[in-house]
Amino acid sequence: MRKMIRGLDAIAQTCMALAVAATGCRYQPPPPDQPLLTWVTNSFEYSTDPGSWAILTNKIDDIHKVTNSAFGQVARINFNFPSAPGSTVLSNGGQGWPILDRNDPNYVNDGSSERFYGSFIQNTRNTNSAFGVFWVLGPNSSFPICGTQPKVLGFTYDATLYADNQVPGAASNRGSVVFTGWIDGITQCQWYTGAGYPAINLYIRVLTHEMGHQRADLTHSDEFPYYHTGPVPVPSSGTFDVMYSNALASSLRIKTPVFDQHFDLATEQTPCLTLTCQDNLICWRSITN
Ligand SMILES: [Zn+2]
Question: Taking the model in full, what pTM does it have?
Fold first, then answer.
């Protein structure tokens, strides 16, 4: 009892001290303990083309580790990434790997890219794995990589295009493509190196973003803000979560990307709210293989 009284005294003194600088003081109890979720570990396939492998070989384990941190922090989900060099490095045109023509106008963001990558993923995914990513060099382009025109750094097939936050049932419909060559080029631009952004941060950000689309059909936070209503945790507070449609320069300093989170995980056990990335990711923990 004595300790408790002294504790209250201390709170009162703190309030008085704060009152000098602020107009009021409110004592708030700490939030209730959040329920501890068990881990969900998903099987995962990743493949690269040879050019991408040359770029990724010394980075891939770190990229995977940090991406897992982002999903683990928000929903206790992680991916069983095969460790290097266990990934499949396939030559174009060999072993069922389709020939991707880097000069094909459909390669990147035009009206038919959805169909182009949709069939690429459906024809190539090893469906023994629940989720998957292909790292490919990406399109050749006539415009300078360090210019201001937007570049498509990754693509996730959306088999449920007209239903937000809905993951397709078939693993063949789940897949992302990440353009290694474009990311590598950007990380060598003067605006990137001059600002001191670590190169690996952009790889992590693109992979986490695309896996957000794939793992829970997450939407872009700037286009669909009503699915991203939660606070963005530190150290990115005050900015968009990783599902922002661009790689925000201000967040490139931060190695581990963040998803927006529900205020109180206890109230969020209602199945499948869609107010935050965390809601949706927790909902889709139902995919456990
Ligand atoms: Zn996106």
Answer: 0.84
